[in-house]
Model the fold of this input.
Amino acid sequence: MSGIVAVAGEALVDLVPAPVGDYFEARPGGSPANVALGLARLGVPARLLARIAEDPMGSRIREHLDRNGVQLDHVVTAREQTSLALVTVGPDGGPSYDFRIDGTADWQWTPEELTGAVDDAVVAVHSGSLALTTPPGAAVLRRLLADAAATATISYDPNCRPLLMGDPADVLAGVHEVLAFADVVKVSAEDLEWLMPGATPDEVLDDWLARGPAIVAVTLGGDGVVAGSANGLRTRRPGVPVQVVDTVGAGDTFSAALLAGLHGRELLGAAKRVQLRALDADALDQLLDLAARAAAITCSRRGADPPTAAELGCTSAHHY
Done:
């Protein structure tokens, strides 16, 4: 497959409950880094745009991503420390997060650090989560996405973290700004409960698609996904039954697999925007089913551990 998917945002360390005893394990994480990892495991050239510290945890993040094939040539070596997320997993496998991010590496972007990050080889740029809401770097990354829309498909996942994002009304206003230039949007029902309480997934699809995207998908956990497209398609796909260990990274895996499917169909890049917006019903369902299967595999494993192409039964780009 040709064409790079760049992913911009945080690459932090998740402290997750250990399988035995009352302890935490340190695991590389961060929503954008998880998406880059998921893409690379599916055979898609993935370039991470992140600020990674030189401390021991930052070294662990680099080694993990490099070992899995994520391109790190545009990663900034940061003087600040690595961000930490403390993860608690509930009885249903759903995670809750606490963070240690004051003054850490992920949020200190300057425009100069991103010079040349989105070149002619990049067909899509994905971002979301804390990277687009945490100052001072949020404004820099938002500008990167807006400018990249001239040449690349823009993929977006709000991936809300209420503990850190402030007033949901303010966050929603920011979401609307990104929707104006985004092409592919994934949002969870849990995010929407915080952002737009009382709104149904169908209402959100109508509202958000009218703001500009080609595809919007609302993930419903075990109940599957509701999605729509700019050409009027609406569909609901079932969840994939699985023994849930935890759901950490499941939404990131969904985004990665959805992008991998579009990449395999050669629908990424600004020049393919018309074709993307004309996607037919069968193709949309196949893309959503692929993403749901990938997310289910992640749910069956501890932490953000997305599947490979072989685990999804995909042996070539055409299988996506």
